[in-house]
Amino acid sequence: MTGKLVPIYLYTRYERFWHWLQALLILVLLVTGFEVHGSLTLLGFARAVAVHNFLGLAWLVAFAFFVFWVFTTGEWKQYIPTTRKMFEVLRYYLVGIFRGEPHPVPKRREAKHNPLQRLTYLALAAALLPLQMATGFLYWGYNSWDAWGLGWLSLGSLALLHMAGAFALLAFLVVHVYMITTGHAVTAHTKAMITGWEDVEEGVAIESWEHPARG
């Protein structure tokens, strides 16, 4: 970090609400899901199933609102994938961060995510979360498969996909918790997601390829 830090209002109230709500839902769903599979004993099987099913449906509804918000506010542009400076970002997290080097793609209101974040969050929102929700919903509606014309589905294969998605989410959560400690201070990113204000380097211009409106 070489430049002067200035605070900017980076995350809206809805973004912060969605972030913490999703974190809570994923954590509880992971815990209750592992209990349903016999890996934990906390609530009891029946209660774990009930809580897991309720929160799974709640997560589906919350995600629908998030998708609506992303497209009506234009925030979907923040997730346009790019490989520009991808190598520089990877090098920063592997080496540069330990040498005190500045981030190669600093945050700005117009460009909140670096190339690695864009690809990761896009894959999460467009692939992993929908897959987890779809397999969970089908799992929940198992007794209605014949009525839905889905009798050809395999419950074992569906359960395997759902469990694989759960481990993928757990891996993302572990990495994400580490990554939030990589700001200019250990608690900087957490504070930003609570208050909405993030400290960024002053006077660092956004390159044309970084601007969401220009792709």
Structural class: mainly alpha
- Helical content, roughly? 55-70%
What would the average pLDDT be, to the nearest integer? Answer: 87
The topology string of helices and strands comes to EHHHHHHE
DSSP summary: helix tally: 6
Number of strands: 2
Can you tell me about this structure?
The radius of gyration is 20 Å and the shape is elongated. It has six helices and two strands; from the N terminus they run E-H-H-H-H-H-H-E. Strands 1-2 form a two-stranded antiparallel sheet. With 215 residues, the chain is mainly alpha-helical. The two termini are 27 Å apart. The model has no long low-confidence stretch (mean pLDDT 87). It has one domain (5-10, 63-204, 209-213).
